[in-house]
Amino acid sequence: MRPTVHPETIALIVEEYGADRRQRAAEDAWWRADGLPFEAVLDRVGRAEVLGKRHGHQRRLTAAALEAGRRALHAISDQLRAAPDFLQLWFLVQAAFAPIRGLGELAVYDAAERLRHRLKLSSHHVIYLHAGARGGARRLAGGRLPKESAWGILRTEVPSGLQHLSTHEIEDVLCIYKDELLLSPQQFRAGRSGGGSRCGGAPDLRPVC
């Protein structure tokens, strides 16, 4: 049985998430790196550097792991450029990172998500899941996802108040707000004064995933 989802809470989440659109646009532009060669994008993605700083998701990874990932991306540069859709891009990064200790599913998703901006690829119907986003999806599903949905769910499987967002934005919301999706509006508002939950660790100045 699916749990109760409060439409007002979802609306509050979308409103809060949307308030940070300018920062996300700046990050998207950083990954797109218009005017720079594709190799520069691979360097940024491989080093997990956003606006010149290590991204919080990869803060615990060793420099050796990141450097191995950077080299692995450069080794398949032509294949990445030729990826016809986000799924194939995800598969390519997954295969490249598979032998590298420390680069798990979050690193794979993040790299594919960052590369897609330059490659102009999007997932139109499937929301790809990693540990954080999967936690949110599980809560919406009542605690457990079908085995075949562990890697991704459809847009139609999330609350209607989220369905107007892109699948990549929905993934972000599922991750950032995984512990708040089922709160009542009153509980959600009360939690704002306490910092709320955030994807990947301690509260930041803004919701991040």
- Summed over residues and divided by their number, the pLDDT gives a mean of 91
Number of domains: 2
Structural class: mainly alpha
Outline type: globular
**How are helices and strands ordered from N to C?**
HHHEEHHHHEHEHH
Tell me the distance between the termini: 28 Å
Spatial order of the strands forming the largest sheet? 1-2
Major sheet attributes: 2 strands, antiparallel
Helix content: 40-55%
Which secondary structure elements does this structure contain, and how are they paired or packed?
Blueprint: H1 7-18, H2 21-32, H3 38-47, E1 49-50, E2 53-54, H4 63-75, H5 77-81, H6 86-97, H7 105-119, E3 126-128, H8 131-141, E4 152-154, H9 167-176, H10 185-192
Antiparallel strand pairs: 1-2, 3-4
Helix pairs in contact: 2-7, 3-4, 3-7, 6-7, 8-9
Overview of this protein structure:
The chain is mainly alpha-helical. It folds into 2 domains: 7-24 and 124-192, no CATH class; 33-119, no CATH class. 52% of the residues lie in helices and 5% in strands. It has helices spanning 7-18, 21-32, 38-47, 63-75, 77-81, 86-97, 105-119, 131-141, 167-176, 185-192, and strands spanning 49-50, 53-54, 126-128, 152-154. It has a two-stranded antiparallel ribbon. The protein has a two-stranded antiparallel ribbon with strand order 3-4. Helix 3 (38-47) runs antiparallel to helix 4 (63-75).
